[in-house]
Design a protein that fits this description.
With 383 residues, the chain is α/β, with parallel strands linked by helices. The protein contains 12 helices and 12 strands. The strands form 3 sheets. It has a 7-stranded mixed sheet with strand order 3-2-1-4-8-6-9, sandwiched between helices. Strands 5-10-7 form a 3-stranded mixed sheet. It has a two-stranded antiparallel sheet with strand order 11-12.
Length: 383
């Protein structure tokens, strides 16, 4: 019992320090975004990698081509990753109606290449404009999306991460949606906080933009191309390690993207395994920060398990859970206000309890096992 308390206390201190570090970073990120340039005349290449997206692609493209900017200032490149459904037909139909939309087809992914990374890279190779903008085929973007991104870039900005949230879908239980939506927004909040703190952790390619010249300068996806997941995370951290470019978080709701939530518990678990699998490839400072938080989660589980031998550990487990929730409130409540999703705070307690075992099991399974993605099975890397 004493050993569990000592170890968990150390992990608890690390967790609280990490929360305070990130909370300070969150306010810095918001302040930096408010100082962003207000005018610009940049041009954009939107790259969308799509595989079997017939359900969502049409709505996505309809939203993308309705930007408030003149059509001459942006192009849309849809990269078909060997789809077997109507994805290509939908993209072609949209291309016939919009001169600034192009379809690129991939016949085969080279050995050792991750399919989605390879698709994105092919899209970037064909991009003609200054700023590359990534989103996914199941996303909906507002008409003000590119204008909001434009305001974030100045001569020093290399990469901008924006907010992505889930939109509600018919037939999904309210709590199931809200708990999932809260965790997804939490990833946005952590991304913003880490960028503001000067230690970028995670990104989301649903709403990610970067300067094409800077992408080439840092070598693009070179060195991380075999890592299956986290193309966005690894690119973000490469920009940071280069030391040549500023990274900003776009908190402007006019640049917020929405996407479809995962419909099943199994799907959520596979998604979280995929997200967890990339964390061992992060930089050393990022791994150190996340490892301490993961150790705190393990300490809570150990205290709960130890309670079956010594009931006093159940009380200690309750204390650790209270610390976890307090830390989440410190970081997430201002983050929810920033993103315009304060209504999700009502599910913070139950979602926090569910998030603990899900995170521990999913990260372990993603790092040491395999996961499903787009109908295929992967490990952490391709060989």
């Amino acid at each position: 019992m004493v050993l569990i308390i000592i170890i968990s206390t150390i992990a608890c201190v690390h967790y609280l320090c990490a929360v305070l570090f990130l909370r300070r970073g969150l306010y810095s990120a918001v302040a930096a975004a408010s100082r962003a340039a207000r005018t610009g005349n940049r041009t954009f290449s939107i790259v969308i990698a799509a595989r079997n997206e017939e359900r969502d692609l049409r709505a996505c493209l309809d939203s993308v081509v309705r930007q408030s900017l003149d059509a001459s200032r942006y192009e849309v490149i849809v990269v078909d990753d060997r789809s077997t459904d109507a994805t290509v037909d939908i993209a072609r139909e949209c291309a016939d109606r919009h001169a600034n939309l192009t379809l690129v087809r991939i016949a085969e992914t080279p050995p050792g290449a991750v399919p989605k990374k390879y698709a994105i890279m092919q899209g970037i190779e064909r991009a003609r404009h200054e700023i590359i903008v990534l989103t996914d085929a199941d996303c909906i973007v507002p008409p003000t999306w590119l204008a909001a991104i434009d305001r974030m870039f100045d001569g020093r900005t290399g990469l901008v991460q924006g907010i992505t949230a889930y939109h509600e879908v018919a037939g999904m239980g309210r709590f199931f949606f809200q708990a999932q939506a809260l965790e997804f927004i939490a990833h946005n909040v952590v991304a913003a906080a880490a960028i503001g703190a000067g230690l970028p952790l995670n990104a989301n390619a649903n709403n990610l933009s970067f300067r094409k010249d800077a992408y080439r300068e840092i070598g693009g996806y070179g060195g991380v191309g075999a890592i299956v997941s986290g193309d966005d995370d690894m690119l973000l951290q490469k920009f940071h390690r280069s030391g040549s470019w500023e990274i900003r978080f776009m908190a402007d709701p006019q640049g917020a993207v929405t996407t479809r939530p995962t419909p099943t518990l199994r799907g959520i678990f596979e998604q979280r395994k995929r997200w967890g699998s990339v964390t061992v490839h992060y930089g050393a400072p990022q791994i150190a920060l996340l490892s301490g938080i993961f150790a705190f989660y393990l300490a809570i589980i150990a205290a709960f398990a130890g309670g079956f031998w010594d009931v006093r550990l159940f009380a200690w487990c309750a204390v650790l859970l209270a610390v976890k929730l307090a830390g989440e409130c410190l970081l997430l409540l201002p983050g929810l206000r920033m993103s315009g999703h304060s209504r999700l705070r009502r599910v913070l307690l139950p979602a926090s309890l569910l998030q603990l075992p899900l995170t521990v099991v999913a990260v372990a399974a993603g790092v040491f096992g395999r996961f499903s993605w787009k109908g295929r099975r992967f490990g952490r890397t391709v060989r």
